[in-house]
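Is this the right way to post structure tokens for a design question? Let me know if I should format differently. Anyway, here goes:
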């Protein structure tokens, strides 16, 4: 049975079925991201003075990802144009470029996430704060009483590993590539501090009151940052899978029904342009403001 209006537009809407469906879906996506952006605004406006982080994200990496997505928007458009003019070879090239750019975007984002995962804040017993990227930790094997130095921390937070004891290894000291400050507010607005000097900082276990990495549990900013960018990254991944399918097994339809296949490329392109547009709002809101 042939499904009507898969290629030709419906007389009542002027759109073929898939295009009408994608616009309805994107309308729901606008409400989803709109709610999260509204939550971000309310959380930021409601934050106490000096307690909202600034300069915690790498602007250059954010700019790079913006350029990558802008290029991918162009290549996915050119892939659709190539189908419209019947040039299947160019379609395969431009769609392959879109996939490569999307994967590059995800790799950059994973690097940013990893950077936060190895970034720790240590609250010391004397009231000071050690902050920086994890270098190493010295543990004492409770069975042999020998010291073992590892370049990873056994846990995300000091309190999560029975006050430094985990898997029969007792924490002796932690070394960070960072700095020590007397007021936690000095760690909030990094843009206002020029020429911050970092060095190797070693904190003994006896001086650690609490220790936690910069995951989504660290503070409100990181919670909304991981939520917004994580959801966006999932959309990038989903769009990449669809585009990859159309570039691979799904391209068989070109031989039997090229017009319908072209419509599928247009639909995937509309979703991709929406994902690009969301990032255009995410970048200045999270990285620049």
């Amino acid at each position: 049975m042939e499904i009507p209006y898969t290629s030709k537009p419906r007389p009542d809407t002027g759109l073929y079925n898939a295009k009408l469906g994608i616009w309805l879906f994107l309308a729901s996506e606008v409400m989803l991201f709109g709610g999260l952006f509204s939550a971000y605004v309310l959380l930021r406006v409601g934050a106490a003075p000096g307690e909202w982080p600034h300069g915690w994200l790498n602007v250059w990496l954010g700019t790079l990802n913006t350029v990558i997505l802008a290029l991918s928007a162009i290549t996915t458009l050119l892939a659709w144009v190539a189908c419209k003019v019947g040039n299947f070879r160019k379609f395969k090239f431009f769609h392959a470029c879109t996939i490569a750019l999307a994967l590059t975007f995800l790799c950059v984002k994973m690097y940013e996430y990893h950077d936060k995962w190895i970034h720790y804040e240590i609250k010391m017993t004397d009231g000071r704060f050690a902050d920086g990227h994890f270098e190493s930790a010295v543990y004492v094997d409770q069975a042999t009483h020998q010291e073992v130095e590892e370049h990873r921390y056994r846990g995300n937070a000091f309190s999560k590993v029975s006050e430094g004891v985990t898997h029969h290894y007792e924490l002796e000291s932690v070394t960070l590539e960072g700095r020590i400050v007397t007021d936690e507010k000095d760690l909030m607005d990094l843009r206002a501090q020029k020429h911050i000097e970092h060095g190797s900082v070693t904190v003994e276990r006896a001086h650690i009151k609490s220790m936690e990495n910069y995951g989504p549990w660290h503070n409100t900013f990181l919670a909304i940052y991981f939520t917004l960018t994580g959801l966006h990254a999932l959309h990038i991944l989903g769009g990449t899978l669809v585009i990859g399918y159309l570039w691979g097994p799904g391209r068989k339809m070109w031989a039997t029904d090229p017009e319908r296949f072209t419509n599928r490329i247009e639909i995937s392109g509309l979703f991709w342009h929406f994902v690009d547009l969301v990032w255009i709002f995410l970048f200045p809101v999270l990285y620049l403001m």
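Format looks fine. Someone answered above. Worth noting: The longest strand covers residues 129-141. The chain has two domains: 54-116+219-288, 120-213.
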